[in-house]
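Quick one:
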Amino acid sequence: MVDIWQPAEPTTEWSSELQDKVRDFGYSSHANYNSMSLLRTTELYDGQSPSLSSSRTTNQTTFQSDSNRKYKEAVRQLPSRACIDLLVHTFFSDFNWQYDLLDEESFREQLVSWREISYSDLQAGFERLPLGTLVFPALLFQVLAHALLFHPPDDGMIGSLITMADMSFVDLGREYSDTGADLLALLGKKDITIAMVQAGLLRASFLKSSGKVIESWHALGAAIRDAQEIGLHTGRNVPDQSTVEPNCEKKGVSVVGHKVWVVLHIWDAHMAVVLGRPIATDIQIDRFAHTIENEEKRRELFSHWQTETNPPRPFDVILAGYHVAYRYFKDIHQIEHNGANSQDYPIVEHINASIKRNLELFPSWCRLENPDTKFDRFPACQWLPVAREGLSSLIHFVILALHRPFIFSVASSRTEALKAGISILRAQERLFELTEPRHCKVFNPVYASFDAIVLITALCLVFPIEDHEQLRECIDVVEKGIQRLGIIGQSNSMAMSAHSIVCNLYHRLRCRLGLFETAEDAPVWIAPNNNAGLSHDAPSQLSFDAVIPPRPIHDLFFDHISIAQIPSTNTPETLPLDPLTMNVTDRYNFDGDFSDASFWSLLNELNH
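Output:
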C-alpha cells in the first residue's frame, strides 16, 4: 500500500491543470516537502500519470502577437549559412574547450534541425515550433558572439557582416550577444531548458570580456537560478528538449547537466573571491558525482582526469583544477569575509599545504612544471598547451587570493603571495607566446596579469626586498606584464584601464628603488642601503597595519579605480602612460570610490 505522505520520486512524470497554476506561485518542482510536492503525490496516488511530453515538446505558453513579431525580427538577424558555419567552427576550435559547455556534434545536429524550419512554420507562430527549436537561436547568437572575439580579422566573408564605418567584430559580437539575451528574456522562465542555462553562462562570459563585469555577475546569477529551476544542482537526470547535449544523452544517461553545474559553481566561487561578492552555489563533488547511477559513465566523467594513458578532454582540465585548488574558493571567501582574522591563519596554512600536496595528484600531462607533452601533438588535444598554462595561472591565483588578506600583516603570506604572483605572470607570458593577438580580446589574460602585477608591485613598494635576484625577477615579470597589457590594450578596453593603473604603480616603484635608464635602455637600479636611498615619502615610514590589501579587479570595476589627471593623447588607441618615459617628478593620484583605509588612498597620501 502506498503511503500518501511519502514524497513522490522527483523523476516521476506528472501533469495536470493544477501543475501550471501551482508553479506560478514559484514552487520548485525538484523539492520533496513543499505544497507542490504534496499535490503531485496526491495526483499520483489518484492514479493519474500523464506524460510531460504533451506540455514540454511544444511551447504551450500563450505569446502575444508582439512577442511573435519580436522573435521573428531577432532570428532574422542571423547571418548567412556560410558565415554561421565559419563562426561555429571558430567557436569550437578556439573557445569551447575553455569551459566545455557544448558538445559539437549535438550542436551541429540542432543547427541542422533549425535550418529545416520552414518560413511558413516561423510565420505561424510559436505553437508550431518545439521548445528546443525555439530556444536554439538564443544559444546560437551567443556562440556567434564569442566566435567573433577569436575569428581572424582578415576574413573577407565575415568582414561582409560589418555594415558601418568604424564597426569591428567585437561590436558585431556585442550585437549578437544582446540579441541572444533578448530572445531569452522573450521566452521567459516558464519552460527552462539546459540550452537556456548554457546560453546564460555564455552571455555572462561575453559581458565579462566586454568590461561589463557587474552585468556579467548578474547574468551569471540568472543562469544559476535557471539551472536550479530545472534541478541541475541536484544531479538528477533532467530531460531537455534542446538536444544540445553530448551523445550519451541518446544512450539514456545524462551528464551535460553535471558538467554545466560544475562550471557554474566554479565561476560563481571564482567571481565571488575576485569581486568580493556572495557565493550562491555549493557542491560536494563526490556526492554530486554519485548522482550518476551508471558507474561507467560516472567514472568517465569525474575520474577520467586522473588517467595517464588516455588523451585528456577539456573537462578533465577543469576537474583537475577543482580537485587541486578551486575547491578552496569557498574557504578563501569566508576568510576574506572575516577580515583577515588572525584566528583564521591556521586555516590559511592548512589550505596552502593541501594545495601543494594536491599538486602531486596531477597526471603527468597537466603537471605545472616539466609536464609530459605526449598528448600535445594529438589533433584532438591541440588546445592542451594553452589550457595547461591557463590552469597554472588560475591555481596560482588561488594561492595568491588565499594569502592576499594577510600580505600586510604576516611575512610568510607575503612570501607565498609574491611567489604566486610571479608564477602567474610567467604562465601568462608563456600563454601570450602560444596565442595570437586576436585571442586577447577576452577577459582571462587581463584579469590574471592585472591581479598579479598590482600585488607584486604593492609588496615591493611597501616591503623592500633585500634579495636582489628576487627583486630582479619581480621587476622583470612586472615590466613584461605591463608590456603585454599595453599590447592587449590596443583592442581591449579593460586592458587599457588596467595598464594605466599598473604604469602608475610601477613608476612609483622605480622612484622607490632608484631605477635609472642606461644607454642601452635597460633598467638598472641602485638598491637602497639601510633605507638611505629612499625618498622622504617612502612607504616604509607609514603604517600598513590597518590598510586593506588591494583587490585589483574589484577595485577597478566596482570602486572605479583610475588615474587622475592623465595626460591626454591625440588618438584613442594610444596608451597615455609609460612608466619608462614618465618624468621622475610626475605624480598622479588614484581616483575612485575607495575608502580611506584602502591601499590606494594611502598611496595618494605619499604625494603630499
